[in-house]
Structures are given as C-alpha cells and as structure tokens.
Amino acid sequence: MLEMRQVEGFLFSALSLSSSSLAVISLLLKKLTAAVLLADVACHAKHVPSRYIRPPSSRPNIADVDASGSAIIPLVDLRDLSGPGRAAVVKAIGSACRGHGFFQVANHGIPDDVITSMLRVAREFFRQPESERLKMYSDDPSRTTRLSTSFNTRTEEVASWRDFLRLHCFPLEDYVHEWPANPPAFREAVAEYAMNARRLALSLLGAISESLGLETDWLAAALGKQAQHMAVNYYPPCPEPELTYGLPGHKDPNAITLLLQDGVSGLQVLGQNGRWIAVDPVPGNLVLSNDRYKSVLHRAVVNNSTERISVPTFYCPSPEAVIKPAPALVDEEHPAAYREFTYGEYYDKFWDRGLQRESCLDMFRVANL
Ligand code: OGA
Ligand code: NI
C-alpha cells in the first residue's frame, strides 16, 4: 500500500513534465505490479525475459556436456561405515574429496519415506497460490527463513531461473516456528528430513576428518556451535534453457553440502578434465582442509518441459567460528593457504558478491592478500 501511494505522489508531481518522463513512470508502475517470483513469470513466458539472459560468452552450452557415469563421479557405499569395513570407506571418501570434491553416496541411512515426504511438501509449497507463497518473501540474505528468487536480487546484474526457500534448521526448535505454516504437513516433513540430513552430515564429517588423519570429531568441533541451512530450489520449466541458468557455476560457502534432487536432472559439476558433467547425485563440498580437498564448481541448468526441485542441506560453521586449517595439516612445506577468518565474515561476502566462477574463498588466500 505504502509503495503505491508513494508512486502516485511521484506520478502527480511528474505530470507537469515532458511526455518522456511519463514513459518512465508507467514503466515504474508496471515494475511494482509485476510478479516478484519467477514461477509467476515463467508460467506465462514464451521467451526468456531479458533480465535472465546471459551474455553469449557465459551461456550453458547444454549440448556440450558429458553424461554422468560412475567411472567419472565416485559412488561411495556407506553401509560399512560402522563396522570392520570402515577404513576402506574412509579411504574411498578421502580419495573422492581429493580428486573431485564431490561424490554420490549409497546406503546413506535416510529412509525413503522421509525423502519422499520432503520432496512432496516442497512441491506443494511451490504450487500454492502466489499470495500464500509471498507471505514468506524477503530479499534480505540475513533473514533466517525466507522465500526469494534468483540468487541475490539486491546485487546481481543477470537473474537466475530459480525461486528458493531458505530455512535455518539447527537447532530445530529455534527455527521451526518461522517456517511456512502451509502446506500443513510442511514443518513436520522438513524437520524429519533435516534431522536425518544432520546425522548423515556429521557421519560424513567424521569419516572425512579421519581421511585427513585427524581425530574423528575434528571437523565437527571446528564448526563451533554448528549451523544447518536448507534451500528448497524450484526451477520452473524455461522456454529457452540455453539462454539462462538455474544457478550459474559456483562453489558452496559451507563445510559440506548434501544435495537431494527429485527425478529431473539439471545438476552439473566441473570435471577434472575441464568439461561439465551432468549428474543425479549427493555431493560433498569441503573448505576446511587447507586446500588438500577441493570444493567442486557446480551449476544447475533448466529445461523446457519439466519443473525441477532440489534440496541442498548446507552444513556449516556457526558465524563466530574461526576458520583455519587443522594444525596437523600445516607444516613448513604446507603453510596455511588462507588467512584466518570468521565464518560470519565469509558468509556476508559470499552473498554480497553474487555467484561468480572464482570461489569466494580465493579472497582469503594468502597469495592474494
Ligand atoms: C545450490 C546448488 C544445485 C541444484 O543450491 O547451491 O548448487 O542442482 N544447487 O539445484
Ligand atoms: Ni551449490
């Protein structure tokens, strides 16, 4: 309401100006009344609106992508993690982290019905009327629960073909009351999935610590109080997928990401040979190993027939945690590769700069200071 009144005031004072200023005003009015979320633009669009179109040099080139294959993307079976086979699983995880910074996991222990319910309420949420979805809208990255679109509409020049709901999930009781109340099953299904994802993230962090020769709980302890964020990504069908991205290439800003996808493909990771690989996976993504383990560059592309939902769980340090390498990983031959920083400092930078190919972590690299 307030916004409309301000614009009307502007309109009146501008009426005495030239007709070209009138054109500007009508554009302004149009912008205020246009859809805020992509889903409500995409359902009418025959072409990709200009603000989503990437310059020709940075388009996805969808035809030139390698198909997924277990030969390329490691698949780690976690069944033996708690048994005599643990050392072999830890070794497989270590080599996946060193090589790709990314792997799929089988026998991860999250029950099928928990996953199915998570994806069901995610889909139901995004299929609600615009007025219901907009109750959750905010473009302020510091909000702990919010629905938004693209990546950071405050700072970016080209938008991405995505709406997303972001939720903080740990400790659950601090946040559940902020989450969407509709669909009615949402809070319970998401809480159940979040608890399971936390268990898996901690178990993987334990194995990853061991694979670096550290105590099992080293990484979990380095995260401080620990935080867990979830994104529920919604990629509507796109009339011209070759012009835009669901998400352009980026590295996630956290310790480890578990990615849950519905059956629609769209995720791609950059392979060691410099080519993009299409995958249907659960990736791990690491930043705490003094550069021994890699954070994989990845992106999401869209398609012209089917909506797609993905649910990354970002397991991260608490804002005050100080990020620095494990002392056991630093010696004269391997000096600290990054300056120390708090996770809060890093996280703010990540959201401010927008998604860029270069990792945000590079800004903290000792050689670049
Ligand atoms: C992300 C992300 C990939 C996908 O949300 O950070 O990389 O497939 N998503 O949705
Ligand atoms: Ni990501």
From TrEMBL:
Domain Fe2OG dioxygenase: 226-317
GO annotation terms (biological process): defense response to oomycetes
GO molecular function, one term: dioxygenase activity
Keywords attached to this entry: Dioxygenase, Iron, Metal-binding, Oxidoreductase
Signal peptide limits: none
Co-factor(s): L-ascorbate
Taxonomy, superkingdom: Eukaryota
Family, similarity comment: Belongs to the iron/ascorbate-dependent oxidoreductase family.
Protein name as it appears in the record: Fe2OG dioxygenase domain-containing protein
UniProt source species: Zingiber officinale
Lineage per the UniProt record: Eukaryota, Viridiplantae, Streptophyta, Embryophyta, Tracheophyta
